[in-house]
C-alpha cells in the first residue's frame, strides 16, 4: 500500500464528512511479532533505534502540542513491526504455543540471510482510521516477508504490505474540522529527512492486546530465549 493510497483514503473520508470515532483496543488478544525498536525490551539494536527515534521526538512533540486530541506513543514504545506471526485469542495461542515458538526459531534463522535490514523512513501521514504513521521503504524487508509468506503458514490477514512506525492514535471521538486540520498539517510538514534505520538483530515482541501496546514481558523473554 502506497502513500498515495493511504492519503487518498483519508482525503476521501474528510471530503465525505465522515465521522472520526475513537479507536478501540481489545485485550483478549495475544500478538507475536518480529520488531525493531520498543527499547523497553532489551535488544542488541537498541542504541541504534534510540538514536533514530530521537530524530522523531521533536516533531512528535510539536504535533502533540498543536493537536492534543491525538494520543502519541511514548518514545520507548516506538517500533516498526517487521513481521506479524500470530494475532488471536488466548485459547488459540495456548493451543499453538509450541508450534509458534518453533516457527519463530526457524524464522529467526532465516532473517539473517536478509540482514542487515535497511529501512528508509520519510513521510508522516494520517490514515483513515485515525492513526498517524511514519512510512518507510526497505527492499530487504519486502524480500524477507515474501520469503516467510511463501514458506510458513502465516494467515493472510496478518501479511503486511507496508513498512511503518505508528506514532499516534485517535482514542477519542473527534470533529471533522480538527482531523482535517491535522491532515493538512501533515501534508505540508510531514516529510522528514531521517537517517536510514539499519537492523541487524530484530526482537520478538509478545503483546496482550490488539494494538500491541501492552507488552507481556514474561512471554517476550520466553520467545526470544527460545528463538535466538
Please specify the SSE layout and strand pairing.
Elements: H1 3-15, E1 29-37, H2 46-66, E2 71-72, E3 79-89, H3 90-111, E4 117-126, E5 131-137, H4 139-151, E6 163-169, H5 176-189, E7 197-199, E8 203-207, H6 217-227
Antiparallel strand pairs: 1-3, 1-8, 2-6, 4-5, 4-7, 5-6
3D architecture notes:
The chain has helices spanning 3-15, 46-66, 90-111, 139-151, 176-189, 217-227; strands at 29-37, 71-72, 79-89, 117-126, 131-137, 163-169, 197-199, 203-207. The strands form 2 sheets. Strands 2-6-5-4-7 form a 5-stranded antiparallel sheet. The protein has a 3-stranded antiparallel sheet with strand order 3-1-8. The model has no long low-confidence stretch (mean pLDDT 93). The chain has a single domain (3-227), classed as Cyclic phosphodiesterase (Cyclic Phosphodiesterase, Chain: A). The protein starts with a helix and ends with a helix. By secondary structure, the chain is α+β, with helices and mostly antiparallel strands. The chain is globular and about 50 Å long.
Amino acid at each position: 500500500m502506497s502513500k498515495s493510497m493511504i492519503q487518498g483514503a483519508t482525503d476521501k473520508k474528510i471530503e465525505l464528512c465522515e465521522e472520526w470515532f475513537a479507536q478501540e483496543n481489545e485485550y483478549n488478544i495475544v500478538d507475536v511479532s518480529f520488531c525493531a525498536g520498543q527499547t523497553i525490551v532489551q535488544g542488541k539494536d537498541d542504541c541504534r533505534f534510540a538514536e533514530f527515534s530521537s530524530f522523531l521526538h521533536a516533531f512528535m512533540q510539536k504535533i502533540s502540542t498543536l493537536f492534543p486530541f491525538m494520543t502519541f506513543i511514548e518514545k520507548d514504545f516506538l517500533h516498526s513491526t517487521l513481521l506479524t506471526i500470530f494475532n488471536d485469542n488466548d485459547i488459540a495461542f495456548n493451543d499453538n504455543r509450541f508450534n509458534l515458538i518453533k516457527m519463530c526459531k526457524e524464522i529467526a534463522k532465516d532473517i539473517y540471510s536478509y540482514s542487515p535490514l535497511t529501512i528508509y523512513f520519510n513521510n508522516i501521514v494520517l490514515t483513515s482510521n485515525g492513526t498517524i504513521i511514519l512510512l518507510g521503504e526497505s527492499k530487504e524487508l519486502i524480500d524477507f516477508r515474501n520469503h516467510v509468506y511463501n514458506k510458513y503458514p502465516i494467515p493472510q490477514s496478518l501479511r503486511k504490505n507496508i513498512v511503518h512506525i505508528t506514532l499516534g492514535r485517535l482514542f477519542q471521538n473527534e470533529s471533522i474540522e480538527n482531523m482535517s486540520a491535522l491532515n493538512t498539517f501533515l501534508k505540508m510538514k510531514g516529510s522528514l529527512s531521517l537517517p536510514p534505520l539499519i537492523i541487524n538483530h530484530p526482537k520478538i515482541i509478545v503483546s496482550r492486546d490488539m494494538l500491541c501496546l501492552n507488552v507481556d514481558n514474561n512471554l517476550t523473554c520466553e520467545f526470544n530465549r527460545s528463538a535466538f
